[in-house]
Specification:
199 residues, alpha/beta, seven-stranded mixed β-sheet, 6 helices
Length: 199
């Protein structure tokens, strides 16, 4: 009788605790090995192309063997066609929130799954609407400390949910890893995260 194929180890090429927590929802244990790449957009680069390129670069830069499966992602908030990035300080975060106030924006996450030289990449869009924010509300949110390591200066998984009136698309995409699309990509490189034996 043939030996069962060993389950490959899943490597998360991100230091984001939110992405690890999302994978934990699926009962997955991951090795966290953040990869370091230059995340600056290229001149004239469109948001979709940016997130796809960065996700692939992060996956390829991760320290992993050919027998391990690497998952990487890049999430950006896009308003009026421009990528907002992460705030550099309190004033920058306040400016971002003022721009998002009462407006609809897109959150785009590029996801890459790699096994050896094989890399599959996808980009997922979610539309998010903010309610109109007062200056005291913005100050309150800044005081939570949430905005400072997050694209667009807010986090849906925390107090930032109070700023959002509606979401069209994947909510886990806004948090940083669209789970349904991630499962599909992992399957494309031979890793099925929903097999009963993984739970």
């Amino acid at each position: 009788m043939a030996e069962p194929t060993p389950t490959p180890r899943l490597v998360l090429a991100s230091g984001s605790p939110r992405r690890a927590e999302l994978l934990a929802r699926l009962g997955l244990a991951v090795d966290v090995r953040p990869s370091d790449v230059d995340e600056a957009p290229q001149p004239g680069e469109l948001p979709d192309d940016l997130v796809r390129r960065l996700a692939a670069l992060k996956a390829m830069a991760a320290d992993a063997t050919d027998d391990e499966v690497v998952l990487a992602a890049d999430t950006e908030v896009v308003l009026d066609g421009a990528v907002l990035g992460k705030p550099t300080d309190r004033d920058h975060a306040a400016t971002m929130l003022q721009r998002l106030s009462g407006r609809t924006h897109r959150v785009i996450t590029g996801v890459a799954a790699r096994r050896g030289p094989l890399v599959h990449v996808d980009a997922v869009h979610t539309t998010v609407a903010f309610r109109a924010l007062t200056e005291p509300e913005i100050a309150w949110y800044l005081d939570t400390g949430e905005p400072f390591d997050k694209a667009g200066g807010y986090g849906l998984q925390g107090a930032g949910a109070a700023l959002v009136t509606s979401i069209e698309g994947s909510d886990t995409n806004v948090i940083g890893l669209p789970l349904a699309q991630t499962v599909a990509l992992l399957r494309e490189v031979g890793f099925d995260p929903l097999r009963p034996s993984r739970r």
